[in-house]
Design brief:
heterodimer; A: 480 residues; alpha/beta; 6-stranded parallel sheet; 4-stranded mixed sheet; 21 helices; 12 strands; 49% helix; B: 179 residues; 5 helices; 31% strand; globular
Chain lengths: 480, 179
């Protein structure tokens, strides 16, 4: 990212005025919904094999229990992971802050004289702004995941946790690639574009001294890192450079291989609607005496989440992004409006802990409490309720905007509200067309119902109700 | 056993692999023939293959040249590669590759990947696969991967594109024991 993150209002306006974005994301969400359903239905056909709990509901129960236990016992389980990984020859570093984790990786590169880092997709590295720190230290970091490479070339941030460049059209990608390689690239042929990445990035895999990846699970019983990829860049990144660095939030802990299996089953179906990811890799220590494996454990607000009884559940997240894939506001504005790397419902919940409550103040308003995210979350995180909790904290600690405060104050006073509606009815006359309110400055077909003559708060013909009595949950602190 | 074999074949095809049943004795000649048909001219063969010499002979007979493992890299690739799987998993149509750093280059630096899988190494589910792996060795292997079909991406407009960084064609020879 070349500059600081733009204010929420600006990101929101930009997304709303980008007609292409909404169309791209609507197509994406429709296709995702159908494909996800088909992937889970296929499980029924596999019944004779004896897969335990082979349904979304059954497997989700298993995984929710497994991840809850890992989060609850994370101190003990991290120690167990560490002992086992070190016994297998890995170096485990438990970083104390985001800055400390970044420092460890930068200093490791400097000490080993590394000039080029090949990166597999790592959302944690985006959370820590690691690339910028490496560049500042004179170390080039090149993204090798196709989507991440696209956004690196475009100097953008991921707009989706699984498909980072889902906001871009093939024409935009073709243009970017052509500018990068300096020869004509198709604007239509996606296979040709993938071929450009395949060709260009080979040199990076061959020359990088360090390969950096994330982790999908840290298996405590054996000190094993589970890493899933579809393109194969994760395997190249973790196999060819002499040094492999794994960057992982400790919430990736699971106790056993059985738990990791449940996660792999749900991650592929929920994330990309596949039965299984193409490459599911298990790494236990370096695979050769000359090679190094460093596992950097990141906290960055996770302990604070774990200590908060309301938000502890959000640490079960396996980053499948299903909550974004079904989110109606996400379809309209895309991931960049969320501001930081974690977008969709989970982003509204964990961003305050990783980047501060202010970072979530604007984005939390995107949620329409439709509950779609809760129906697809493979680890049963009560996302809609947690988003309302964030909203509550934002209002409580940062206050509400003046206009919202004024509107709510009017709404809390039935007589004043009735008067406001009467004024509204008088003023709206020139703008009402066919029982809909339109305004020449409203764009994109926006319209609203006109101010109504009747109120659902006043029975027909009856008197206005009195303001809510003191102590009523309907009464706000500013009510008269 | 037969139902697990059938289930594996169906699922492997579903994830984009091409599966053929071959007899152990015929495997080298069939492998050379397949790779030649696929347009390969250079082939790398994993060191761990028990009958590696037979495969090298068959490649030579078919007019294909061997790429030594020591020279194989992302920029000095082979067209084809031959490896052997530890296990095959019917649930996911995956093969479990549990290889040394050197042999892994055969899986990473080729365009057409052929994996030999003995029918005796087939298991029904991921759970049984990991339990079997645990029975083979007390400690988990340093590096093991379940491979399910060819390399793919859906990063541009969620359109599936086959062959990004890994092999763009993935073949499995299910080897029947016996002559």
């Amino acid at each position: 990212v070349s500059g600081p993150i733009a204010p929420f209002a600006e990101r929101y306006r930009k997304a709303l005025t980008d007609g292409q974005l909404g169309r791209n994301l609507l197509n994406f969400q429709r296709a995702y919904g159908a494909a996800r359903r088909a992937a889970f239905e296929h499980w029924h056909a596999q019944a004779p094999l004896g897969i335990p709990a082979a349904s979304f509901a059954g497997q989700r129960e298993l995984l929710t229990r497994a991840k809850s236990q890992a989060v609850r016992d994370h101190v003990k389980e991290l120690a167990r992971f560490r002992t086992a990984a070190e016994a297998a020859g890995a170096t485990v570093y438990e970083s104390t802050s985001a800055r400390d984790a970044v420092r460890y990786v930068v200093e490791l590169c400097q000490r080993r004289g590394a000039r080029l880092v090949a990166k597999g997709k790592s959302m944690v590295s985006e959370e820590l702004f690691l690339n910028q720190a490496l560049e500042a230290a004179g170390v080039r970091a090149i993204e090798t995941d196709l989507g991440e490479w696209i956004i690196q070339l475009a100097h953008e941030t991921p707009s989706h946790m699984v498909m980072p460049a889902i906001h871009k059209s093939r024409q935009q990608v073709g243009e970017l690639f052509e500018a990068h390689v300096g020869r004509p690239v198709s604007r239509e042929d996606i296979a040709e574009m993938a071929g450009v990445a395949r060709q260009e990035l080979r040199r990076v895999f061959a020359e990088a001294e360090v390969g950096l990846t994330g982790a999908n699970a840290l298996i405590a019983e054996t000190g094993t890192v589970m890493l899933v990829t579809n393109e194969g860049n994760g395997r190249l990144t973790s196999s060819l450079p002499r040094i492999h660095v794994v960057l992982a939030g400790w919430e990736k802990l699971v106790l056993t291989w059985d738990d990791a299996t449940a996660q792999a089953r749900l991650l592929a179906r929920s994330g990309t609607a596949q039965d299984i990811t193409v490459y599911t890799t298990f790494i236990t220590g370096p695979d050769h005496p000359d090679r190094e494996l460093h596992i950097v454990i990141v906290d960055n607000g996770r302990s604070e989440m774990a200590a908060d009884p309301d938000f502890e559940a959000a640490l079960r997240c396996i980053r499948c992004a299903a909550c974004a894939d079904v989110c109606p506001p996400y379809q309209v504005v895309g991931g960049h409006a969320f501001g930081f790397v974690y977008s969709g419902a989970i982003g509204l919940v964990n961003t305050p802990f990783h980047h501060g409550l202010e970072a979530a103040a604007g984005p939390q308003s995107l949620c329409v409490s439709c509950n779609a995210c809760a129906t697809v979350c493979p680890v049963s995180i009560p996302l809609p309720r947690l988003i309302l909790d964030v909203r509550h904290r934002v209002a409580e600690r940062l206050g509400l905007p003046l206009r919202k405060r004024a509107a709510l104050a009017v709404w809390a006073r039935p007589r004043l509200f009735g008067l406001a509606m009467a004024v509204g009815r008088a003023l709206q006359v020139p703008f009402v067309r066919g029982r809909q309110l339109r305004h020449p400055r409203w764009r994109g077909g926006r319209r609203a119902p006109p101010c109504s003559a009747a109120s659902w708060r006043r029975p027909p013909g009856g008197p206005w109700p009195r303001a809510a009595p003191a102590g009523s949950p309907w009464r706000t602190s500013s009510s008269a | 056993v037969e139902s697990v074999t059938t289930a594996f074949q169906a699922q492997a095809v579903r994830v984009g692999a091409a599966v053929r049943g071959v007899r152990v004795a015929d495997a080298p000649a069939r492998a050379a023939e397949l790779l030649r048909q696929q347009g390969c001219r250079t082939v790398a063969v994993a060191a761990v293959l028990p009958d590696r010499a037979a495969f090298l002979d068959a490649l030579t007979t078919a007019g294909l040249s061997e790429v030594p493992l020591a020279t194989l890299s992302p920029t000095r690739r082979a067209d084809g590669g031959i490896s052997i799987a530890t296990l095959g998993v019917a649930e996911t149509g995956s093969v479990l590759l549990h290889s040394t750093a050197e042999d892994r280059r055969v899986e990473l630096c080729v365009d057409v990947h052929l994996v030999l899988l003995d029918t005796t190494a087939l298991v029904p589910t991921l759970d049984t696969a990991f339990r079997t792996l645990r029975a083979i060795s007390a400690r988990p292997p340093a590096y093991a991967t379940l491979v399910s079909g060819p390399s793919r991406s859906a990063d541009i407009e969620r359109q599936i594109t086959i062959g990004v960084h890994g092999p763009r064609a993935f073949h499995v020879f299910l080897r029947e024991p016996g002559p």
